[in-house]
Specification:
With 542 residues, the chain is mostly helical. The chain is 58% helix and 5% strand. A 5-stranded parallel beta sheet has the order 2-3-1-4-5, sandwiched between helices. The chain is globular and about 70 Å long.
Length: 542
């Protein structure tokens, strides 16, 4: 669109740069003074309701505090007023991406890039590549990264994103080279050091350790770089069996991450309490026969770092099962329209069937083959097992479980990009694991045989019998290929991507033992769950 739209866009940018009230609000936003920025922008928009620069800034405020739907509404209003406002379109694409609406984000980015609007193309192109990766279009994403780097080779973060994608599709050596290119450009970029550590099979040299230790002493180093360096050094020192120094770095990195986090363990405990009270045998009896009858999905859930990626790789080696990735669709549907689980009381049979159909529609973009079944491997779906059963009663549900100390410490030393805020404190970690166990124990009671449980240590020690049981739980005949899962070529996005490309082994199974002197808070929070493992204490209530 040309003419009035372009002129409006140009005026908007000029206003944002010169209007003292908007400049002040932008500075508040830059310095993370969110309430001040929001108050100033709302007051300004009362007087100037059609100022698209102000609308865009208010949308950024909403996005900063996680109100993505509000941000989207504001950005669409700005683009209605100024279709050529490239910065607003780029913001809209980002907000859509953060809502896991990658296809819509790509459409906005294509329009932005095709029309060469008033936005720098590097950021949108990089975001498009990330969105392509999220929906499994890895080859197209790689091509886009390579085109970006050809034109702008001095971009360490683009090299890092490129390396992430190479790692995901199994090109580990090329990924390591790309990570090294990023570090050559910026040796203080902590996320790259952590990305190398996060390969799990990578070993740092003494020179690497020295460079990371020096980087930590850099004046003015950002907290994000500092905590990533701490996690990476924790891994490097753990590999050297220097457990005290390793734990010190893990603890420092977690403390930094926890400081910027608002995690409240009580929220999960309350959700579990409410779920146990709501999900009675009578509740399910009254809803017998509801939901979408499709058998397509296989949900692998439980704790992060509990062996779920290994299970996914095994099942994805079956000719009837397609592996996808960790999908955010089920939590989004569970919370649509109200607080979970109380909102389920307001749903009727038609609602449950429609929600199951919506899930299949939303996830169809992830399916790249004609295999009849597919895997959704989002660990946090343990909180929604009852909901899954109600909307997709014929789906397979697999609970991946690992020793609570092994699992707990593995999470503590893992820096997650987002979504696992309970992992940054050992006591929070233990409480979360205990809440997970008691909800799953309740599900076992009210929905017997609904969930197939795989104990990680049993899978390691009795591989073939456990794999046969897994395949049977999916209602399929056994195939020898599932025993040779490590030969299956597929994209794996999780931290275990390199580990599941090897045969089953005991590497890392007992890694927590060297750190046991510091795991007291985890043990205390686990309570009876620790003593009862691998059995679930049915009567355990917090």
């Amino acid at each position: 669109m040309t003419g009035a739209g372009d002129e409006t866009s140009q005026r908007a940018v000029a206003a944002a740069l010169t209007n003292p009230r908007l400049v002040a609000a932008a500075l508040d936003l830059h310095d993370n003074r969110i309430p001040e920025a929001e108050r100033a922008l709302r007051a300004y928009l009362k007087e100037n309701p059609f100022d698209v620069a102000a609308i865009r800034l208010l949308a950024e405020v909403a996005a900063r505090i996680g109100r993505f739907r509000d941000s989207e509404t504001l950005l669409r209003r700005a683009l209605e007023l100024a279709p050529g406002f490239g910065a607003a379109r780029a913001n809209l694409a980002t907000v859509l991406y953060r809502q896991n609406r990658s296809v819509e984000a790509i459409a906005e980015l294509d329009r932005l890039l095709d029309e060469d609007l008033d936005s720098d193309s590097l950021g949108p192109a990089n975001l498009k590549a990330a969105a392509l990766g999220r929906i499994g279009e890895f080859e197209e994403a790689l091509g886009l990264y390579e085109a970006i780097l050809k034109d702008a080779p001095n971009q360490p973060r683009v090299w890092m994103s490129y390396a992430h994608t190479l790692k995901t599709i199994g090109r580990s050596d090329d990924g390591i080279k790309a990570y090294r290119e990023a570090l050559a450009l910026n040796p203080h970029l902590g996320e790259v050091w952590w990305s190398l550590a996060n390969l799990k099979t990578y070993r740092f040299s003494d020179d690497d350790v020295a460079v990371m230790q020096k980087a930590l002493k850099t004046p003015g180093l950002k907290d994000a770089d500092r905590l990533h360096l701490d996690f990476a050094l924790g891994k490097a020192l753990e590999d050297r069996r220097d457990y005290a120094a390793s734990f010190a770095h893990y603890a420092t990195g977690n403390a930094l991450r926890r400081r910027s986090d608002r995690y409240d363990a009580g929220v999960i405990t309350a959700m579990v309490d409410e779920s146990i009270d709501l999900f009675t045998p009578r509740f399910f009896a009254e809803r017998q026969g509801v939901g979408c009858p499709a058998r397509d999905p296989i949900f692998i859930l439980g704790m992060p770092r509990a062996g779920s990626t290994l299970i996914e790789q095994i099942l994805s080696s079956h000719s009837q099962i397609e592996g996808t990735q960790e999908l955010a669709d089920m939590p989004a549907l569970a919370r649509r329209g109200g607080r979970y689980p109380a909102r389920l009381l307001d749903l009727d049979a038609a609602d449950f069937k429609k929600l199951g159909e919506d899930y299949l529609d939303r996830t169809r973009v992830q399916r790249k083959t004609d295999r009849p079944m597919f895997i959704d491997k989002l660990p946090n779906n343990w909180a929604h097992v009852a909901f899954i059963h109600l909307i997709l009663p014929n789906a397979t549900i697999v609970d991946a479980r690992r020793h609570p100390l092994a699992c707990g410490f593995s999470n503590f030393k893992q820096h997650f990009a987002r979504g696992q805020d309970f992992t940054y404190d050992l006591a929070d970690m233990g409480r979360y694991y205990a809440d997970y166990v008691r909800l799953m124990a309740h599900v076992d009671t009210v929905l017997p045989a609904c969930v197939h449980r795989t104990i990680h240590e049993h899978l390691v020690d009795h591989t073939e019998s456990e794999i046969r049981a897994l395949v049977s739980a999916c209602g399929l005949d056994f195939e020898e290929a599932t025993l040779r899962f490590f030969e299956t070529g597929r994209a794996v996005r999780t931290p275990s991507s390199e580990q599941v490309r090897r045969p089953v082994n005991r590497d890392g199974t007992d890694a927590w033992q060297g750190f046991e002197p510091w795991l007291g808070p985890l043990k205390t929070a686990l309570g009876p769950v620790l003593d009862a493992y691998p059995n679930a204490p049915q009567a355990f209530r917090r």
